[in-house]
Fold:
Amino acid sequence: MVTLAPVDPGDPMLNASGGAAGAEGLRIRLMSEETAARAAARETASDEVIFDLRELSCFYGSFRAVREINLQISKGMITAIIGPSGCGKSTLLRSLNRMNDLIPTAHTTGEALYRGVNLYDPAVDPVEVRRRIGMVFQKPNPFPKSIYDNVAFGPRIAGFRGDMDDLVEGSLRRAALWDEVKDKLRSPGTALSGGQQQRLCIARAIAVEPDVILMDEPCSALDPLATLRIEELMQELKQNYTIVIVTHNMQQAARVSDVTAFLSMGTDRAGYLVEVAATEQIFTRPEHKLTEDYITGRFG
Amino acid sequence: MAARETDAAQMTTTELVRRSLAGGGVNLRSLAFEGVLTVALLVALGILAWLLAVIAIGGLPVFFERGLDFLTSDLSSNPDRAGVAQGIAGSLMLMGFVVIVSFPLGIGAAIYLEEYARDTWSTRLINTIVRNLAGVPSIVYGLLGLAVFVVALRELTGPGNAQGQSLISGGLTMAILVLPIVIITAAEALRAVPASIREAGFGVGATRWEVVRSHVVPYAAPGILTGTILAVARAFGETAPLIMVGAVVGGLSTSYEGVIETIQGRYTALPTTVYDWARKPADFAANTYAAIIVLLVVLLAVNALAIVLRNRLERRW
Structure:
């Protein structure tokens, strides 16, 4: 069994992982087009690669949904995946914590290195992967249990031995939900509003102290105000977590993300990576005509 | 002058619209169809009401005359002393077997089929078979019980004078009879739990077992419960397979000694009692009706319980 390293930036094993050189490459590419201020911000944020996808393809049965993606995702940043409907954004995201394994016909080829370990190595346990790489879904999906139990479920099954009340409070605080629910922790999570439910789902995800949070169109079922709250929350969470967000909302990608990856659909209906760069660059000076057409609303 | 002309034109337009919108009188076809449907409903309800009235008129005097004595008396050849105590006891014990055997097996099978089995041709074949088994006439299960539990397993099910025609044979036959129904209803309840709940569980690093135990099964429990209660009600009313596997029609010794002796001994059930009395001379007619009333009351109560539980516990997603 391959053990996935815990989150410790000082771990020499991590720094020695194969992705470091690639991260450097991405950084240099990004640097060349960026303002000095943003570069400085990134410098402090990270130069560590969390995900390194190499020729990653995802299939449902014989249908290839995502074709040969090469992409690096850096620590402490918000990476947005945008693209037209059906281009495999969600599939790509769900391949990062092996959520696609739950679909019986799904399989992948290529490599998805997480801190240097291929997630699709036969020795890797998907349950362990999902403990480190949490997920927030498109439609808020709290368990039909109390708010408290929603947050406590993850730590409980992970064998958490500390003070659960503290952990629940801390997770709800970090999800900017504590003040609204502190007096009704025992009432069902499903009774909250849509935006509160989604923040509860975020609290549930961070309660297990993940390394990465994957967000699959987390605001598509929410009103603009609730969306704004989630976006603000993402900026705070960025301090502690690496976030990958799929969104069909280009303004959202522009507002919240540091890096944007644009996917499009090929003639074989498989999604492929057109371009990845600093968000500012993608939205102001895209390299590819296709990207420009998409962000200016000419298709998609 | 001109204005008046426009007014006149306006009038005619309004009149034209009024005419075109007016109903075309009574639609005879529609009325006739409605009449046919009403008659169909009345005939169905009438037959049911007639049946219930006959049973009530025939059976209620027994309760007026003997009160609860009818419920607590044993079988007897004297119609004035005969009661349904053994029938009720036998039926309840049969239900016990159904609950103990078919619930764990049926719910377990449903959990496996819904949560664990991959969607292969063999899984689909098994699902189809289970659905078809639920529709197999109960007499066929009676034959199965006769061949397996009464004859082949005689040494286990009834080594004494019961000759295999024992309570355990009947109970196991009933359990197998309702097993497909339990599997189907439990599987439907599990399927009603949305996939997003499972994803939420897996998303925080739960294993399949943890997702099933902590989420899917608890959320499906109300549906599973009502489905299985209805399955028990079905078994309660079944008669044919019990006659096949030898529920006693007629006298029954009441010398219950111990658990083993009881389940390996002869038995009767409420519907079997009805069946037996119905074939007896006319002096048992009132008893027959009264026993039917007991049977119907129990079935109604069980179904009502299932409905109440469903309305109170069922979750809307």
